[in-house]
Amino acid sequence: MKYKNLNKQYLFVRTITILTLFSLILPSTMGFTFFEINDSDENIFNHSPGEVLCEKSAGSLGATLAVIDYDGDGDKDYIEGSFHDIFFITNDDDQFHKQLYCTLDEYNGYADVLDQGAIASAELNNDGQEDFITGGVQGFVRIFINNNSKSGLPQFIEHELAKFGQTVYGITVADFNVDGWMDFAVSHATSPFEYATITIFYNQKDLSFSQKDVYQHDTYIRDLKSGDFDGDGDIDLLFSYSKSIWHGDWPLKLIGVYSLLKNKGDDTFEPEEIIAERGRDLFFYLGINMYMTIQSRIRHILGLNRYGPQLTCADYDDDGYVDFLVGDNSGKVEHFINMGNGDFESGGVIHRYGHLSWGLASGDFDGDGDIDVIVSANNRYNDFEGNVWLIENHLYD
Questions:
Q1: Peptide linkage before 27 cis (omega within 30 of 0)
Q2: Could you give the CA distance from residue 352 to residue 341 in angstroms, rounded to a whole number?
Q3: What confidence score (pLDDT) does residue 223 get?
């Protein structure tokens, strides 16, 4: 009897192994690629994790990052949102010092979690000091107005602007109406979920904002960025979301999607243009329990779990077109190069971290004139410990 059980276990392991290899090889013969290689001559980022700036706050799944010069000394500092905590990380001659600034209030007994794309920085009142905006899972939109912050002493006045149903995950800043005052846009969802909405907040120049709903989507929007991606002089919107594949009664999030909304010139937008989709399922399905315990880990090892996409954008190659980078649950960070008119090509995966490369932000940290990237990611699969890395742009080296 003992040998029969051993044989059954051996056959089970062998079957899983064969099915895994089959799921990898077969789609490759059909034109799908699982292991992206950064082989583009146009890519100006190194094939390495970069320099560790700080540890990511432990106890939080991921972290949201926003670049800010809050103390006005000319160095790039940054903000980290981890769980419901906001941290300021001060750049002191390229040495980074981290301090807790505040904890967001709970709502109905639940934390207002900031892990997924819910902080952005901007100068909102034209006083020469950078402010910041927060969202969060509970649906609040808050602005924090800089009140003469000094290095190591962030001082801000908080204003609550709006309360939506849930999941203000995406925040992006731009002067949408070209009046010299920074506006911003957020993505949010109804509660219970029916649809997601993108809303523009127009700056009324007195710390009040008018609102305009400009787009609805049938799934949660994971992140939101803005820029003149098609080069026609107005501000377009770039957003990301996760797409599910159904196995029986279970909708499993497996695919990351990145899409462009082109501005018609009056802050109404053309229909969604999908730029790219990343991630795939395994070729076999052995039930939800097996999927969650074994198959999900296999998908991670193979780098297939590209859902939960987070974005950052800038003109990294200084060609006049706004590019973007995307991180996701796999730990990968992929570079998309704008070829003009809002057409994008992948420059490949810059690096694959351990897990959840959710925190992405852009700024010139080394002062050489090109735009670098900071990334927050976990060190290992299902491990909350991680770091914030600086990936330097070598365009002008």
A1: no
A2: 29
A3: 97
Structure tokens given for 160: 């609550």
Question: What are the tokens at 59?
Answer: 């106890």
Give the type of residue at 280. Answer: R
Q: What is d(CA 2, CA 13) in angstroms, rounded to the nearest whole number?
A: 17
SS3 79: strand
Residue 38 and residue 276: Cα distance in Å, rounded?
Answer: 16
| Mean per-residue pLDDT over the chain, rounded | 89
Sheet arrangement for strand 171-174: 171-174, 183-189, 196-203, 209-217
Closest CA to 59 of 97, 111, 108, 96: 111
Q: Which of 127, 166, 122 is nearest to 147 (CA)?
A: 127
- pLDDT at residue 261 in the model: 98
Query: pTM surpassing 0.85?
Result: yes
If you average pLDDT over residues 37-43, what whole number do you get? 50
The whole-angstrom separation of Cα 4 and Cα 10 is 10
CA–CA separation, 242 and 222 (whole Å):
7
Torsion of CA 293, 294, 300, 306, to 10 degrees: -70
> Given 3-state DSSP classes, what are the helix, strand and coil percentages for the chain, each rounded to the nearest 5?
10, 45, 45
pLDDT of residue 16: 52
Q: How many CB atoms lie within 10 A of CB 264?
A: 12
At 202, which helix (H) or strand (E)?
Answer: strand 196-203
Tokens of 285: 């399905």
Q: Which of 72, 74, 67, 38 is nearest to 53 (CA)?
A: 67
The pair of three-digit structure tokens given for residue 95, joined into one six-digit string? 């040495």
Note whether 360 and 327 are within 8 A (CB): yes
pLDDT given for residue 72 in this prediction: 97
Long-range contacts made by residues 91-95, C-beta under 8 angstroms, separation at least 24? 91/365, 92/151, 92/152
**Structure confidence at residue 8 as a pLDDT band (50, 70, 90):** very low
DSSP-assigned beta bridge partners for residue 260: 238, 273
d(Cα 83, Cα 114) in Å, to the nearest integer? 5
Chain CA centroid to CA 141, Å = 18
